[in-house]
TrEMBL record:
Metal-binding among keywords: no
Record-given protein name: Response regulator transcription factor
Origin superkingdom: Bacteria
Source lineage: Bacteria, Bacillati, Actinomycetota, Actinomycetes, Streptosporangiales
Modified residues (4-aspartylphosphate): 55
Keywords from the UniProt entry: DNA-binding, Phosphoprotein, Transcription, Transcription regulation
InterPro entries: CheY-like_superfamily, NreC/VraR/RcsB-like_REC, Sig_transdc_resp-reg_C-effctor, Sig_transdc_resp-reg_receiver, Tscrpt_reg_LuxR_C, WalR-like
Domain HTH luxR-type: 142-207
Domain spans labelled Response regulatory: 4-120
Coiled-coil regions listed: none
CDD domains hit by this protein: LuxR_C_like (cd06170), REC_NarL-like (cd17535)
Gene3D superfamilies xrefs: 3.40.50.2300
Pfam families: GerE, Response_reg
Length: 212
């Protein structure tokens, strides 16, 4: 099954490079492009992609607000923020807005391909170490639902924060992958999180997982 990708970046050269890499990979295909955040929504509604590669800094409408509008759709695509600097607070704001992960523009082609596939699968977290560094600059506060987690759900959330996939968590806890999927679902429900990234951000912001 082909993973359908939309590119959102105000630089023509960047979009061209991304398209060449993605279209060269079997199972991936670029189905649309947008030169600004404001143009992303109509392209997504028309093409219904699985993943949007979103530049975080665009002139008319930035990637943060564009991401917020995308995740409000009834059936939103996964959003992978593409940025120059991994310690940019704009990245953290985009993740809080609903992005599923981020990728550095200097990433190698194979890293880009892997990132798109990883975000499409929804079973792992991109760049947890960098997210920890970004979270460390934000004050911890109370997040609803954290105190409702069971001990095992807390274990799963901590491993999610390390970027482990469901299979890796299952191996770590010596349980089945299906059991892990159930725990992950419970964690997302109790935290009111859209996905793993949102759950991990909640864990850091509440102090449940230490960002250091």
């Amino acid at each position: 099954m082909t993973i359908r990708v939309v590119l959102a970046d105000d630089e023509d050269l960047v979009r061209t490079g991304l398209r060449i890499i993605i279209d060269a990979e079997p199972g991936l295909a670029v189905v649309g492009e947008a030169a600004d955040g404001a143009a992303v929504l109509p392209v997504v509604r028309r093409e219904r992609p699985d993943v949007v590669l979103m530049d975080v800094r665009m002139p008319a409408l930035d990637g943060i607000e564009a991401t917020r509008r995308l995740v409000a759709l009834a059936d939103p695509p996964k959003v992978l923020v593409v940025t120059t600097f991994e310690n940019d607070d704009h990245v953290y704001d985009a993740l809080r807005a609903g992005a599923d992960g981020f990728l550095l523009k200097r990433a190698r082609p194979e890293e880009l391909v892997r990132a798109v596939k990883l975000v499409a699968s929804g079973e792992s977290l991109l760049f947890p170490a960098a997210i920890r560094a970004l979270a460390a600059r934000r004050p911890a506060g109370r997040v609803a639902g954290v105190d409702r987690l069971t001990g095992r759900e807390g274990d799963v959330l901590r491993l999610m924060a390390r970027g482990l996939s469901n299979g890796e968590i299952a191996a770590e806890l010596v349980v089945s992958t299906e059991t892990v999927k159930t725990h992950v679902g419970n964690v997302l429900t109790k935290l009111g999180a859209r996905d793993r990234t949102q759950a991990v951000i909640a864990a850091y912001e509440s102090g449940f997982v230490a960002p250091g």
